[in-house]
């Protein structure tokens, strides 16, 4: 039985880009959102842009237009809003846009037509939006990269680091994610300091069984790989292990003992 039939996707594009999500593949995001066979009923991307710069900077204008065209090819609705400038006491001009308010209102008013909502933002104020949606009986899933508020992560029905979703961000490897020789991202869920080794878990495929985290089970989309302390970058403090908040990037290598992780690099931390 499908957990949900209709899904909506809501993305604060600038917020995501500025917090580790640069280069996000919106086609992969759609695939992830509809992983359980459901239908996407709303896919909204909220884009704040500098109106003054757009008039004066041809390159900026062309890149913005090209970005919007690509999103529309994937059937996203792009809501473009100009950024307002206001001077504070220091003379600086912080960027302001009502786009978060518009995004929140759209989620509440459009939720009646969907069962599940996917949210990409770092704004802690969306805690109240998520609570309201859950009161309406909706499931809310949160995807983030860097600087994600802990309270925002905890209030969502599911939080997934975008770094760990196969193909969502570009990664330098000539091999397909999850194959021997490829470079993937995951978390260190178990580590023995006395023995100097532990295990990394990574998402091997996108499907409806994200809740089956035990990679020994046949329906689990996750894989487990052995990790020795010597393979972590030299300046990494292993006392923080194990941790589900630290995201690592590593090579998948196969030897006589099975899959092992090599060249383990920290890519994101709270």
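Q: What amino acid sequence fits the structure above?
A:
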């Amino acid at each position: 039985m499908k957990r949900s039939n209709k899904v909506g996707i809501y993305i604060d594009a600038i917020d995501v880009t500025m917090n580790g999500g640069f280069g996000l593949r919106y086609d992969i995001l759609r695939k992830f959102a509809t992983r359980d066979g459901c239908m996407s009923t709303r896919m909204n991307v909220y884009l704040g842009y500098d109106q003054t710069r757009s008039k004066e900077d041809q390159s900026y204008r062309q890149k913005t237009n090209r970005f919007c065209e690509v999103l529309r090819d994937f059937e996203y609705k792009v809501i473009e809003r100009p950024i307002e400038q206001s001077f504070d006491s220091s003379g600086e001009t912080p960027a302001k846009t009502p786009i978060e308010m518009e995004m929140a209102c759209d989620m509440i008013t459009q939720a009646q037509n969907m069962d599940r909502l996917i949210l990409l933002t770092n704004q802690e104020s969306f805690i109240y939006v998520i609570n309201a949606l859950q009161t309406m009986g909706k499931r809310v899933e949160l995807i983030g990269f860097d600087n994600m508020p802990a309270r925002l992560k905890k209030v969502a029905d599911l939080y997934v680091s975008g770094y760990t979703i196969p193909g969502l961000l570009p990664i330098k490897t000539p091999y397909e994610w999850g194959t021997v020789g490829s470079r993937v991202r995951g978390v260190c869920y178990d580590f023995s300091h006395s023995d100097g080794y532990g295990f990394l878990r990574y998402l091997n495929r996108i499907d409806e069984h994200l809740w089956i985290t035990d990679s020994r089970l046949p329906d689990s989309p996750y894989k487990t790989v052995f990790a020795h302390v010597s393979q972590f970058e030299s300046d990494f403090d292993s006392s923080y292990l194990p941790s589900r908040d630290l995201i690592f990037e590593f090579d998948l290598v196969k030897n006589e003992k099975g899959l092992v992780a090599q060249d383990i690099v920290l890519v994101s931390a709270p």
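Q: And what stands out in the fold?
A: The first helix runs from residue 13 to 21.
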